[in-house]
């Protein structure tokens, strides 16, 4: 009888021990599975975030290159942005809807969904707005050059523009940003001389260049003259010529800046001695 009781307790002990070990393994397995699932999800999310971040930097830098050359920037709008916008419009026609990624242009659905030109324009807004913001950043060099050396630049500026910016900086910068001109650097220099707040300058420039002019230009390019833009883009000779002009201008500009700094340094040195 005692042997039976002892055997019973022994089996009970082993059963509890096995249960605890098994349950711990189950919990451990579930824990590892959950961690693996979260890590996999986060890694995919981080990968996508990196892609979108790099894509945003790409379009902003192209926008900067378009305007940083003091009126002779690279034609990144013609050679990069507008063909990309046309590609978005064409991809919408291929997919039959707007459910596709702007990174790899893969259709997420084959269902035919009716869409309008405005919907396509909204779909294409991220690269357009990022590029437009970059063009505003490209206008900062003349702004700061004039701000730091006011006496050297004031005599070159249009007095009527100076007066308008002084009286109503935001509205004047916004209107000049809308106008299709190649002299917006003059506006930036005038804003720097008059100590216009940099946030006011950037916000007015972005509204004029991006939200208004950029949107109108994008709609025109995507739905009216897209074939001409593709033909222009495919002309490698034009691309080489415009890139050459841009780089030559930038080298000349940097050379003049260094020469000016050297002359100022020599003048200060002579005055001290």
Which SSEs are present, and which pair or pack?
Layout: H1 2-67, H2 76-95, H3 117-123, H4 125-137, H5 140-148, H6 150-153, H7 159-167, H8 169-178, H9 184-193, H10 198-223, H11 226-233, H12 236-272
Helix pairs in contact: 1-2, 1-4, 2-10, 2-11, 4-10, 5-9, 7-8, 8-9, 8-10
Structure description:
The protein is mainly alpha-helical and 273 residues long. The protein is 80% helix and 0% strand. The protein starts with a helix and ends with a helix. Mean pLDDT is 75; it is low at 1-6.
Number of helices: 12
Model regions low in confidence, pLDDT < 50 over at least 5 residues: 1-6
Shape: elongated
User: How many strands appear in the DSSP assignment?
Assistant: 0
Overall mean confidence score, pLDDT: 75
Biggest sheet descriptor: none
Radius of gyration (CA) equals 31 Å
Structure classification: mainly alpha
The percentage of residues in β strands lies in under 5%
Cα distance, first to last residue?
Answer: 116 Å
Order of helices and strands: HHHHHHHHHHHH
Query: Helical amount among residues, as a percent range?
Result: over 70%
């Amino acid at each position: 009888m005692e042997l039976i009781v002892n055997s019973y307790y022994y089996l009970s002990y082993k059963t509890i021990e096995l249960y605890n070990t098994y349950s711990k393994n189950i919990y451990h397995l579930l824990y590892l599975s959950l961690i693996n699932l979260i890590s996999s999800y986060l890694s995919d999310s981080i990968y996508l975030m990196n892609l979108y971040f790099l894509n945003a930097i790409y379009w902003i830098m192209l926008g900067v290159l378009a305007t940083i050359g003091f009126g002779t920037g690279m034609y990144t709008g013609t050679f990069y942005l507008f063909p990309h916008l046309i590609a978005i419009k064409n991809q919408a026609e291929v997919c039959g809807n707007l459910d596709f990624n702007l990174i790899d242009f893969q259709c997420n659905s084959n269902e035919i969904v009716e869409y309008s030109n405005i919907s396509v324009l909204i779909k294409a807004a991220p690269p357009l707005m990022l590029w437009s913001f970059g063009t505003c950043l490209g206008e900062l060099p003349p702004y700061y050059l004039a701000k730091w050396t006011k006496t050297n630049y004031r005599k070159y500026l249009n007095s009527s523009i100076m007066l308008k910016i002084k009286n109503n900086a935001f509205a004047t910068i916004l209107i000049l940003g809308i106008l299709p001109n190649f002299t917006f650097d003059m506006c930036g220099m005038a804003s720097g001389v008059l100590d216009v707040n940099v946030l006011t300058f950037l916000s007015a420039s972005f509204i004029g260049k991006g939200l208004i002019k950029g949107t109108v230009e994008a709609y025109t390019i995507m739905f009216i003259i897209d074939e001409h833009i593709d033909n222009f883009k495919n002309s490698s000779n034009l691309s080489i010529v415009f890139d050459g002009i841009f780089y030559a201008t930038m080298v000349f500009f940097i050379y003049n800046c260094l020469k000016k700094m050297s002359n100022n340094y020599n003048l200060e040195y002579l005055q001290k001695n």
